[in-house]
Structures are given as C-alpha cells and as structure tokens.
Amino acid sequence: MTDVLRRGRASLAFSFFAQGVTFALLVTRIPAIQNRYGISDALLPAFLAAVPILAGVGSVTTEQLVKRVRPSRLLRWSQPVVLLALLGVGSGDRLAEVAVALGAFGLTVGALDASMNMLGVSLQRAYGRSIMLGFHATYSLGGIVGASLAWVGAHWHLALWVSYLPVVVVLLPATLVGSRWYVDGEGPAAQGEQGGADAGSVVFRLLLPLCLVMTFAYIGDSTVSNWSAKYLQDTLGSSEQLATVPYNVYMVTTLLGRSIGDFGVRRFGAAAVVRAGALVAALGFAVVAGAPGAWVGMLGFTLLGLGLCVLVPQTFAAAGRLFPGASDVAIARLNIFNYVGFLIGSPLVGALGDAWSYRGAMLVPMVLVLVTLVYARSFAPSGDRYGGGHERPRTADVGRGSNGL
Questions:
Q1: Is the separation of the CB atoms in 71 and 117 below 8 Å?
Q2: Predicted local confidence at residue 274, as pLDDT
Q3: CB of 338 within 8 A of CB of 322?
Q4: Are 145 and 20 in contact (CB under 8 A)?
Q5: In 3-state terms, what secondary structure has residue 185?
Q6: What are phi and psi of 401, to 5 degrees?
Q7: Which terminal residue of the chain has fewer beta carbons within 10 Å of its beta carbon, N or C?
Q8: Cα 398 to Cα 1: distance, rounded to the nearest angstrom
Q9: For 147, how many CA atoms within 13 A lie in the half-sphere containing its CB?
Q10: What pLDDT is attached to residue 193?
Q11: Cα–Cα distance between 303 and 255 in angstroms, integer?
Q12: What's the confidence (pLDDT) of residue 385?
C-alpha cells in the first residue's frame, strides 16, 4: 500500500512538473506566436482570452465526465493532447491553424488542471497529511524550466517548433509511462452515491468562499505575470534588463514557499498558513505600490511570491475536505475560478492604471487578497487542524493504480 501511494505521488508530481513546463513555454513565447502568424495587436487579446474561457468549459465538462470516468484516465489522455496542441501552436502557418491549436490547448488544459488537482486531493486524504503544496511546487519548478527554455529559444532565434519539439518528444512518452502509477480516490460510483446531494446548490453555497479566494489569488498572480515588467520600467524607472527580473524572482520564491509550505500546514494548520500567506501577499502589493525605486519594488514582488503561493493549493485541498463524498465535482467547479481570476486580473489592473495610476492599481489586488482573511475559516473545518485531515488511508480509496482500470 505504501509503495502504491509513493509511486502515485511521484508520478502525479511529474505530471504537475510537465504542465508547468508546457504552460510556461506557451505564455512566454506569445510575442513570437504573434509574429509567426501575423496576429494584430487588436486581435491578440481575443486569442489570449479564448484560452482561459475554453479551459473553463473544459473544467465544466470534466465535472460531468468524472461521474463516469476516473480522473486518472482523464489526466492520462488530456496531458498528451495539451503537449501536442503546444506543438501545433508552433508548427502552423495560417491563422486558422493557430486558432484550432489554441482551442484544443484551452479545452484540454481545463480537464488537465481539474484532474491533476482531483488526484492530488485524494492522495492527500490517503496520506492523512498535507502534501498538496508539494505538487504545486513541482509545477512552479516546471514553470522556471519552461521559461528558461523559452529564453534559450528566443536568444538563439529558434523557430517555435524547434523550441517545442524536443520538449514534447521528452515529456509526452514520460507522462504516458508515469500515468501507469496514478492513484485514484473515490471512483465514479462513490461520487454518485455519496455526493448526489452535494452536487446541487448546497455545494456551491459552501464552495463560494473558496471560489472567491481562488479568483482573488489568480487576480494577484496575473497582475505579477502581466504587469511586473511594465511597472518596474515605466513607473519605477528601471532598465529594460532589470525589468525582466521580478517575474523570475516571483517564480523562484513561489517554488520556495510551496516547497516548505506543507510543513507549515502540518505544524500550524491550513487556516493559519492561508492567513499568513494573505498578509504577506498584501504587504508585497503595498511595498510595490509605495516603492521609491526598482530594488524596493523587487522586494515587493519577492514577498508576493512567498504569500500568494500557498493560496491556490490550499483552496483545492479545502474543497476536498469540505466535500469528501463529492470532491471531484467540487474541485472541477472550483477550478473554473482559476480562469475567472486570470481573465479579470490583467484587464482590471491595466484599466485602473490608465484611468488612475499604476501605483494605485496595485492596491486593488492588495485589498482583494486581504478579503481572503474573512474566509480563512473555510480552510479548517471543525476537527481538522493539520489541513490534510485526520482520515487514515482506506482500502476503498487508495491502491487503485490507474493501470488497474
């Protein structure tokens, strides 16, 4: 039983890593994609918005699919499609081709994100302690690797397909092999029997605080990813080279925070870690907004990485604890608000920056992150001090490697 769980944990961590690499390779090469296909500045926002919108559709579809198909099977086949869609983005010549490739990427990445987190929550329940932050740490590591590979491709002026092909050739078979050891939790039958009542309005009413926290966290994250370089250069007067540093620092501190975050959850509880993360993130936005110069601004982005990094993994984990009989349904619904926050964050800050000031705009995600404190109690249901629950592994819940389906 222990070997099954360990193999399941390692294979799922690799899946998170692969997705981090894949997503970073897409988003960091957007200028190259735009140039390759001649996408105008006016049309580019529509292409970028289509991906998270379709991902939300994919997540909604996954909610229905997991009633009949195990999450491990969805993950096993959605990840290769995402990788092939990435290759398609870099290999086409016409606008219609990139539209189809991005559409396939968006739809399947919604299923991929939802099913990965479903398996992570069920494994955490089986372990009886917090391990969810570790999975998201490997995603952050993958993002750093992917961004580094993208820099190499841009530096050497490599064609997009030349940058993407070696990654797909390595990761696609590796994820397929690793998928043999995925471990499911409750199967579709259990979801139907135990979660029927939870699948209606009661679930959403209880899930709403977590949905808001997820949205606010991704508004903060998209603010950093989309506006940190422009803010440092245009508002704080940094050089163009220095303006590229904050996002890298943010990714590294995100990895660091998630790597040690599970220990904090086990020691102090999930609610305490979420409160601390929200306060540190709010302090980071305050430092960024009031920074007199670029180096102080980078300190603020460092604090943002350490604070925001714990919110999303713990939100997924809390959904699993709130609805143990319908955790897959809850996570699929919660995952939609990942994309809601992504869609809202960048336009919101941009509009406020143009209409008011970018310093003032940074205070808005700060206030939203602070709202998380109001909902922190949702992260620690009664009797659950450690965030991973006190449930012990159950034979019915674990030991179902996906290769046994």
A1: no
A2: 97
A3: no
A4: yes
A5: coil
A6: -60, 145
A7: N
A8: 8
A9: 16
A10: 38
A11: 13
A12: 41
User: The tokens of 329 are what?
Assistant: 């349904």
| Cβ neighbours for 64, distance < 8 A, ≥ 6 positions apart | none
182/7 Cα distance (integer angstroms): 8
pLDDT number for residue 186: 53
Cα–Cα distance, 72 to 122 (Å, whole number): 11
Q: Taking the CB of residue 293, how many other CB atoms lie within 10 A of it?
A: 11
183 beta partners: 401
Buried b (16+ CB within 10 A) or exposed e, 168-178: beebbeebeeb
What's the CA gap between 292 and 132, in Å, rounded? 37
User: What does the pLDDT read at residue 233?
Assistant: 86
Give alpha helix (H) positions in 66-94: 71-91
For 39, residues 6+ apart whose C-beta sits below 8 A from its C-beta are 33, 47, 95, 98
Whole-number Å distance between alpha carbons of 28 and 32: 9
Nearest in space to 118 (alpha carbons), one of 81, 171, 65: 65
Beta-bridged to residue 400, according to DSSP, are 184
Measured between its terminal Cα atoms, the distance across the chain in Å is 17
What span, in angstroms and rounded, lies between the C-alpha atoms of 80 and 167?
12
State the Cα torsion 310-312-315-321 to the nearest 10°: -80
Measured over the CA atoms of residue 99, residue 104, residue 107 and residue 110, the dihedral's sign is: negative
Cβ atoms of residues 112 and 78 within 8 Å:
yes
- Residue ranges in the chain whose pLDDT is less than 70: 1, 186-203, 241, 381-405
Q: Quick one: which of 386, 334, 117, 114 has its CA closest to 206? A: 334
pTM of the model: 0.87
Q: Which residues contact 165 (CB under 8 A, 6 or more apart)?
A: 87, 90
3-state secondary structure at position 177:
helix
* Amino acid residing at 178: G
Q: What is the pLDDT, as a whole number, of residue 10?
A: 96
Structure tokens at 131: 């391990």
- The full length of the chain comes to 405
Q: What token pair was written down for 170?
A: 């390595």
Residue 44's pLDDT is: 84
Q: Which residue has the tokens 């290999």?
A: 91
19/279 Cα distance (integer angstroms): 29
In degrees and rounded to multiples of 5, residue 66 shows phi and psi of -70, -10
